[in-house]
UniProtKB/TrEMBL annotation:
It comes from Macrolepiota fuliginosa MF-IS2. This is Kinase-like protein. Pfam families: Pkinase (PF00069). SMART domains: S_TKc. InterPro entries: Kinase-like_dom_sf, Prot_kinase_dom, Ser/Thr_kinase_AS, Ser/Thr_Kinases-Pseudokinases. The lineage of its organism: Eukaryota, Fungi, Dikarya, Basidiomycota, Agaricomycotina.
């Protein structure tokens, strides 16, 4: 059942009063036009609104570290319920008076990472592989398949699970879906959802996105010598700026993780090492993942030198300089090095990944060379921000190279593909009565613990 009212948003519904929470639930669905819907259902009164106090409870939880910690450590069915609830809160624009949108995302990210769960609304139905599928590519954690479904070719990244490592990889995939699923930009590979392959005894999880016939930017440029490099550099910079503006660190930028769509535009992909940087309220518990798994050719010096390195926006900027170098030259950073040990020694000596020759490489002028060198400043504080990079490239201004609204049109098409793919999903019901019990319980228990601590301190 879909409401006939204009697309309601959960926080708008929650701002209404006079509701009996015990019999209420939220239904997340997708209509025939592909738009996500948030609808309230009550057995006795289908049009009854939801309670303001539910949003008040969530706000109270998000403002206290102990309460957030209790929420983030939920397990089982309660964890799944809160994952779905927090995801529903993120749908649509923020409502007036609700100031915790980014904190909801941080909490959802952490809860998903800890519980190895993802929003049920991401799950796609009826996506099946051929009886004898052949992987077109394989990586350290997954196999990649190309399948035709819903009138288009899809890319299915199937998680490869080893004995004893299932939970670790599921956690990685769950947090990846949260961050990737929240992105919408012409220079970010669209995320369609998740599907399960296999039977009940052995299911494999895979992430679904559109298939990019042009492949990654390295192989694309190797077979398209005449393609101008600068627009692709601008695409990469704009995609990364979008992530950084939304407090997301990519963490694994390299040419192989940047795909080229049918319009010849670059899209950032592979969010397996992505992380979110919290605001000051969350800073007591860092959310940025350690650099385990980073690729040394694209790694900033601090990721090698520090005892407890963390991926940052500045380390992304170093990596994007390396990607720019790949785009202009077709060569790898530290191309003369055959192994990680050589690369690490050069990084610790303060060597650049390459010396740029503006005479040798097409489209590479002195201003671009200086920009790349700026990205390779040894200290993180000496590197430009993505905003500065985009401004230096002139990518923040409309360009005739975009073909008018070509980029926006391409993005709209990719977004519609996502909605079409999501349309197959069944309705997801969220039991608000149980959500209220969980949030109230978190507030009550943590308040008692805090009061107990204060009493103990009084006796010391």
């Amino acid at each position: 059942m879909v409401s006939s009212r204009p697309e309601p948003h959960l926080k708008d519904l929650l701002s209404q009063k006079d509701f009996q929470a015990a019999n209420q639930c939220i239904v997340l669905s997708v209509d025939e036009a592909g738009s996500q819907q948030v609808e309230m259902q009550t057995p006795n009164n289908p049009s009854a609104p939801t309670p303001q106090h539910l949003i008040d409870l969530l706000s109270a939880v998000l403002q206290t570290r102990q309460k957030r910690g209790a929420l983030e450590n939920l397990k089982g069915g309660d964890a799944q319920l809160l994952v779905d609830f927090l995801y529903s809160v993120l749908l649509g624009p923020a409502s007036p008076g609700f100031k915790h949108q980014s904190r909801v995302l941080v909490t959802l990210y952490r809860l998903s990472k800890m519980s190895a769960l993802h929003p049920q609304h991401y799950v796609l139905k009826d996506v099946v592989l051929d009886q004898r599928p052949v992987a077109v590519d394989s990586g350290g954690f997954c196999d990649v398949y190309r399948e035709y479904y819903g009138g288009q070719y899809l890319c299915l990244r199937v998680l490869r699970v080893y004995d004893g490592g299932e939970e670790k990889f599921l956690r990685r995939y769950s947090k990846e879906t949260i961050l990737w699923g929240q992105t919408e930009h012409p220079n970010i590979l669209p995320f369609y959802g998740i599907c399960y392959l296999g039977n009940e005894s052995f299911k494999q999880i895979c992430l679904v996105s559109p298939w990019m016939e042009n492949g990654n930017i390295v192989t694309y440029l190797a077979t398209h010598d005449s393609v101008p490099r600068r627009p692709l550099v601008c695409d990469v910079a704009c995609g990364l700026k979008y992530l950084h503006d939304n407090h997301i660190v990519h963490g694994d930028l390299k040419g192989a993780n940047i795909l080229v769509n049918s319009a010849g535009r670059a899209c950032l992909a592979d969010f397996g090492l992505a992380s979110i940087q919290a605001d000051k309220m969350f800073s007591s518990r860092a959310t940025t993942t350690a650099s385990v798994g980073c690729t040394y050719r694209w790694a900033a010096p601090e990721l090698v030198e520090e005892d407890t390195p963390r991926l940052t926006k500045a380390s992304d900027v170093w990596a994007v300089g390396c990607v720019f170098y790949e785009i202009f030259t077709g060569l790898l950073p530290f191309n003369e090095c055959s192994g990680n040990a050589q690369i690490i020694r050069k990084l610790m000596r303060g060597n650049w990944p390459a010396v740029l020759d503006v005479v040798r490489w097409t489209d590479l002028d002195e201003s671009m060379r200086d920009l790349i060198y700026g990205c390779w400043a040894e200290g993180p504080g000496g590197r430009p921000t993505c905003q500065q990079i985009v401004q230096e490239l002139g990518a923040d201004r409309p360009s005739s190279e975009d073909g008018g609204n070509g980029v926006r049109d391409q993005f709209a098409r990719e977004k519609q593909r996502f909605r079409d793919a999501m349309r197959k999903n069944s309705d997801i019901q969220i039991d608000l009565a149980r959500v209220e019990q969980i949030l109230s319980g978190v507030c009550t228990v943590t308040s008692r613990i805090f009061a107990s601590c204060r009493i103990r301190l009084m006796f010391y």
